[in-house]
Design goal:
1074 residues; alpha+beta; 31 strands; binds adenosine-5'-diphosphate; binds magnesium ion
């Protein structure tokens, strides 16, 4: 209620429509009163008046945003947020494109107001990563554009030197999608000239103050402002403004918008080029022809520029100092004078900068533009330069004021004229309100046939001498009687003496006041010519961005058509803007500047009064008061409020107007509050509309509850139905299932009973069958026994006759079997010497037993033989041979059985003494032994060594171990031995042989049996004839002196050593043996 109170506060009403009495003074007083209370915003209906406080007020906090979010316009304190909210909601909920027109003088707070609107919309629209990015990009476009397009003027430290119209586009939910920025006429003359106390565009100061040393070096710039001609060679710091910080903020903003680092560098390079161009000095000289010519005074700056943009120094130098002119189909190069040269240089700087600015806007647009195809709603925010009245007003002011005039026209058309015309159209009783219609001024300027701009264009294009004087003369002629046009000449004609109007000027009575324009420079600025040589030089540069700014410099695309004039361009862009604004629902913010000195909270009544007048605020209030605050077509109105009437809700069958009448009647709205037009309903006071809105909101809540109720009911009912159906299905299934289970159980029980019964029956049957079977078997057995018995009785007679033989045979076989098995178990040892053998258990087995014994013996011997070594076999053969020779013939033989036949008794190989003998024997040695030789003459014995080889027999003397006698085996033809157990051996030699020359040999050996046996075997091997052995007691031996008969006598005297030989005469020898 506080807000409403504030609206109705009689001392300082919030809505001037409620002002009483309504006079200029009361209006001014109210504004002042409110201003003193820091209430800078005031309404006239839905128009917001904003008075610049020049200090920051705590009324833009997030809490304030929340307070105004979805508020009712008339229910809260006047605020710029309220109009922003109204516009936004109207856009979102009523689907109406909006435009917010912010007007006012320079420094009145338009730019700030536009930023507040944007930030409010950004704060209340929905959030989300994508949406936030879009919002951020839209908001960040401000610092970038302000850096390049704003400058300090006398009236405003941050004055926008270009017009800006920004369309923010939203989707159906009211989420910002992006936007488009249009820029209008940058005040480019500021690049080359600005009055004392003002500054060039912010960017130059920001760049020099905020650029790092490295960046400045890269851009070939010096940090000191005083170095630069275009900055008036003066230091110009603004109190409270940190250019360096703003530069960083601007760079951050560029990053947010999406500028690449390369783009930023290129942008700053071109900016540096503009700044440096101002330092290119020209000096005058004369050509050979005597013509005045200009040249570059100092080439350092020019060289650096050319390095920055990648251009040949001479190309730029030539373009700056000369000009190609077409003379009779021929291109002639003419030199420029110094002023012409400077003109060219400045034109180049201005063109580069203004084109760079256009490029910047386009580049921002590419980042923030919305993808095609999306359905969108648009909110346009117009922040255009304010009305300007200076001491000396030029072409720019003329253009700026023309634009403001057009905006005023829109305002008049839409609020005042339109309103009154509408009342008449709708047939509503209405007292017309006087207001000033500025169409006449607009017409004076823009009329395409005879307007000032058209005249200017005509002058620019006209051949022959063209200067501002001819232009002014033409205007004077044309508008001699025009109410809003004045000049020296027209005044003279009217006999008015006015010293304030100088000769070179004309004056226009704008809606906001009289402005005197100096025509100097009009033609030049309107033409906005840039020598083609310069644009071609720029196109020739290698710097991509700079080159792209001068497409007309391409020699391939030379066009002789003159480019459209600045005035023409501006007029057409203003026309497009107006068309655009007309298509949208306007919302007005009218900014008022309270003082000229930018002082906080200072209110200069005169200044404000002037603005109140030219803004037509009083008329505005009058119209509002005389008229109706709200109007709407019957259809949409009924649609919106029909839920408030019982008869109109939910459907009205009759006409729309009738419906509205019935509805309002039912709502008991006082008749004086209403007027029924032909197509629209008019409501006089905002309170009534507010009341309607409030009721509607309440009703909407009720209806929403109703719908909710119905919906919930319907949902519960359908859910219930669904549950019921489900329940039926479930129970049907369940019952079916239970029945099935019961049936299964019964079936199982029946089967069990059945099985038991069948089992019992089967078992009974089985028992019966088994009994029958046993009976059957018993009968069979009895029958078998009986038959057996009968058969046996019949058979017994035959059986008895052969039984004994078969029995005996059987027993016999069993006995033999047992014998053989027992024999196998009790086999005697396998030793060859073992002769044991078990006796036969029965007599009849004796033969077989003997046979088996001999077989076993032979088998044993065979086995024994098979395992004998060859040596052993030879030894045994020798023993066998000995047995054949001596067994049972000589008493010595049994004794020799136990002695093994060693053969080598001397150890020839081991004993070195017998080396020679060993050599004689070589490998053929059969036997080596010590023997004694009997001297046949004396009967005495001498020791000798005997060696028997396979071929000969050698006797050697033991000491010398030398062979004494060697006999070939063939020399021996026989041998004689005694019957007794002595070792005497007579070897009978053949007479013819050399060995036998000495006669037979008589030897005594300890191994006689072996010696004779081996001799026999050696002889068999050598001559295939055995030894003729005589075992006898008397034999004769041949001696050298005749034969000697040897008689063997058994005597006790014979020593144990051997036989004793005794010579008995010459021819007889007695040998005593025992
Ligand atoms: N609502 C406001 N609150 C505080 N200061 C303001 C407000 N509006 C404007 N100003 C001050 O006035 C100066 C000029 O405002 P600006 O919007 O740039 O004017 P315009 O765009 O109309 O030329 C701003 O720099 C700011 O200091
Ligand atoms: Mg501004």
């Amino acid at each position: 209620m506080e807000a409403t109170n504030s609206l109705l506060d009689t001392a300082a009403v919030g809505d001037l429509v409620l002002l009483d009495p309504l006079t200029e003074e009361s209006l001014l007083r109210t504004l002042q009163e409110r201003f003193q209370r820091s209430d800078i915003y005031t309404y006239i209906g839905n128009v917001v008046i904003s008075v610049n406080p020049y200090r920051s007020l705590p009324i833009y906090t997030p809490e304030t945003v929340q307070e105004y979010h979805n508020c009712n316009f008339f229910a809260v304190k006047p605020h710029i947020y309220a109009i922003a909210d109204d516009a936004y909601r109207s856009l979102r909920d009523r689907d109406r494109d909006q435009c917010i027109l912010i007007t006012g003088e320079s420094g009145a707070g338009k730019t700030e107001a536009s930023k507040l609107v944007m930030s409010y919309v950004a704060a209340v629209s929905s959030k989300g990563e994508e949406v936030d990015k879009v919002k951020e990009q839209l908001l960040q476009s401000n610092p970038v554009l302000e850096a390049f397009g704003n400058a300090k003027t006398i009236r405003n430290d941050n004055s926008s030197r270009f017009g800006k119209y920004m369309d923010v586009e939203f989707d159906f939910k009211g989420e910002p999608l992006g936007g488009v920025i249009s820029n209008y006429l940058l005040e480019k003359s500021r690049i080359v000239r600005h009055v004392k106390g003002e500054r060039n565009f912010h960017i130059f100061y920001q760049l020099l103050a905020g650029g790092s040393a490295q960046l400045l070096q890269q851009l070939k710039l010096r940090q000191d402002c005083r170095h630069y001609g275009y900055l008036n060679r003066e230091r110009s710091n603004l109190p409270g403004v940190d250019d360096a910080a703003n530069f960083r903020a601007m760079q951050d903003a560029m990053r947010v918008i999406g500028f690449s680092p390369e783009e930023v560098t290129a942008l700053l390079e071109v900016t540096a080029v503009v700044l440096k161009l101002g330092n290119v000095e020209l000096s005058s000289g004369y050509q050979a022809s005597g013509m005045e010519a200009c040249s570059i005074a100092e080439s350092q700056e020019l060289r650096e520029i050319c390095e920055l943009i990648g251009l040949d120094t001479s190309t730029l130098e030539q373009a700056l100092c000369s000009r190609t002119v077409k003379a009779r189909d021929e291109m002639v190069l003419t030199t420029l004078t110094v002023p012409q040269g400077y003109y060219g240089r400045d034109a180049l700087a201005k063109n580069i900068y203004s084109r760079l600015f256009d490029w910047l806007v386009n580049r921002i647009n590419t980042s923030i533009q919305v993808k095609p195809g999306k359905q969108r709603k648009v909110m346009g925010v117009l922040d255009i330069y304010g009305f300007e009245i200076f001491q000396d007003n030029g072409f720019e002011q003329f253009i700026i004021n023309y634009c403001n005039e057009k905006l005023q026209q829109i305002f008049i058309l839409m609020t005042l004229k339109e309103e009154q015309e509408e009342y008449i159209r709708e047939g509503i009783r209405w007292t017309p309100v006087e207001f000033f219609d500025n169409s006449i001024i607009c017409n004076l300027i823009e009329n395409s046939k005879g307007g000032i701009l058209a005249m200017l264009d005509e002058e620019c294009l006209r051949p022959g001498v063209v200067n501002e004087d001819t232009f002014l003369t033409k205007l004077n002629q044309l508008f001699a009687t025009h109410k809003h046009y004045e000049s020296r000449e027209t005044q003279n004609a009217r006999h008015v003496m006015d010293a304030s109007l100088p000769p070179q000027c004309f004056r226009i009575h704008h809606y906001a006041g009289k402005v005197t324009y100096n025509v100097t420079g009009f033609i030049e600025k309107n033409n906005d010519l840039l020598f083609r040589d310069l644009s071609q030089a720029m196109w020739a540069a290698r710097h991509t961005l700079l080159r792209s700014l001068f497409p007309e410099g391409d020699p391939q695309k030379v066009s002789l058509k003159l480019p459209p004039t600045a005035g023409f361009q501006f007029k057409s862009s203003v026309a497009t803007l107006m068309k655009n604004l007309y298509s949208k629902n306007p919302n007005y913010i009218r900014c008022i500047k309270p003082n000229e000195t930018k002082t906080a909270m200072l209110f200069t009544p005169e200044l404000v009064l002037a603005q109140i007048r030219y803004l037509g605020l009083l008329e505005n209030v009058r119209v509002r008061r005389a008229g109706y605050a709200f109007r709407q077509l019957y259809g949409p109105f009924l649609e919106r409020y029909k839920m408030l009437g019982t008869r109109t809700w939910p459907r009205w069958a009759g006409g729309n107007r009738d419906g509205v009448e019935v509805l309002l009647e039912e709502l008991a709205i006082p008749a004086e509050e209403l007027a029924f037009g032909h197509t629209k309903i008019f409501i006089r006071s905002p309170c009534t509309l507010f009341d309607l809105e409030k009721r509607r909101q309440e009703r909407v809540v009720q209806l929403a509850t109703l719908i909710q109720k119905m919906f919930r009911g319907w949902r519960c009912w359908t859910q219930y139905q669904l549950m019921r159906k489900s329940q039926i299905v479930i129970s049907a299934w369940f019952r079916g299932h239970a029945q099935k289970n019961r049936y299964k159980q019964m079936k199982r029980s029946a089967l069990i009973i059945q099985a038991y019964a069948r089992g019992w029956k089967s078992r009974r049957l089985l028992r019966e069958l088994k009994r029958q079977c046993r009976r059957h078997a018993a009968a069979s057995t009895i029958a078998a026994y009986w038959r057996g018995y009968q058969v046996r009785r019949a058979y017994r007679r035959f059986f008895r006759s052969g039984a004994s033989a078969r029995l005996a045979n059987f027993i016999y076989r069993r006995l033999v079997q047992r014998f053989l098995v027992g024999l196998e178990r009790n086999l005697p040892p396998l030793s060859v010497m073992d002769q044991t053998w078990p006796p036969a258990p029965y007599k009849f087995l004796d033969d077989a037993n003997q046979e088996l014994r001999s077989i076993f013996c032979r088998w044993k011997c065979k086995k024994y033989r098979e395992q004998l070594t060859p040596q052993r076999r030879a030894l045994l053969q020798a023993k066998l041979c000995a047995s054949e020779l001596f067994k049972d013939k000589k008493a010595l033989y049994p004794k020799s059985l136990a002695q093994p036949f060693c053969g080598e008794y001397l150890g020839l190989a081991q004993n070195p003494k017998y080396q020679k003998l060993h050599a004689v024997a070589k490998d053929n040695l059969v036997m080596a032994d010590a023997v004694r030789k009997v001297n046949k003459a004396s009967g005495k014995t001498v020791p000798r060594l005997l060696l028997l080889t396979t071929e000969r027999l050698v006797l050697a003397e033991p000491r010398a171990a030398q062979p004494k006698a060697t006999l070939s085996l063939g020399d021996i033809h026989g041998a004689s031995v005694t019957r007794f157990s002595d070792g005497l051996l007579a070897l009978h030699l053949r007479e013819s042989t050399t060995g036998g020359a000495k006669g037979d040999l008589l030897l005594v050996s300890d191994h006689l049996i072996e010696l004779v046996t081996r001799l026999h075997q050696a002889l068999l091997g050598a001559t295939a004839r055995g030894l003729a052995l005589h075992i006898t007691d008397r034999f004769s031996t041949r001696g050298p002196k005749g034969d000697v008969d040897v008689t063997v006598v058994e005597s006790e005297r014979a020593g144990s050593e051997g036989p004793v030989c005794k010579k008995r005469g010459n021819r007889r020898m007695e040998v005593l043996v025992h």
